[in-house]
Amino acid sequence: MNVLYSLRDVTVRYGVRTVLSVSDLDIHRGEMLAVVGPSGAGKSTLLRLLNFLQPPTTGEVRFDGGVFAANRDAPLSMRRRVTTVFQRPVLLKRTVEANVAYGLRLRGQRDSAAEIAATLDEVGLAELAQQPARTLSGGEAQRVALARAMVLRPDALLLDEPTANLDPYNVGLIEQIVARLNQEHGTTIVLVTHNVHQARRLAQRVLFLLDGRAVEVADAHTFFEAPQDARTGAFVRGEMVY
After folding, report:
1. Is the dihedral of CA 76, 86, 236, 42 positive or negative?
2. pTM of full prediction above 0.90
């Protein structure tokens, strides 16, 4: 598989404290990689690196040939190829349609009504296009946030606990949308989740972070059925108290 992201000798430090240390990690184009680990393991820091929001203290993040490092900012053209959906969506006090259109309008793409309508249909919100975002349920709001990211057709979509506060029905809807986006559109997806069952359902590969370090990365079957590191096995079995 082609490599989209390549991290080499990456660390993120706050003073003397190292919050993330990844010596060698490739993320393949078109794959879904789940990132798991306890709170404070460095998962959100990793997403900020992948979205070029926070530079590494040392090392470099390569994205499709471009370089992001402490002394080298990611160009706007590279940043626009990646987008993030967070655990708690922040929506504009406008209609559902206006929220989905927001990113396109910022990029000067005004003639996009058909694309917005198609994306709302993809996430099952076509009938709510003119409804004020403030009236939506939590699951509907998260689908609007997902549609707002999807309509940009990013090369990489980063998901930070996108279903953490949702009921099982909405978890299922979000998972279906994400899986379809990966399988049918070939979007590279990095999914941060505390839910190991979700990682097992969705991901082709899984990365386990602990204390800011990459303990193990493997294909999903190996990761869950035959982990190579004892700490991974303890985490997967629910034996790790942290």
Report:
1. positive
2. yes
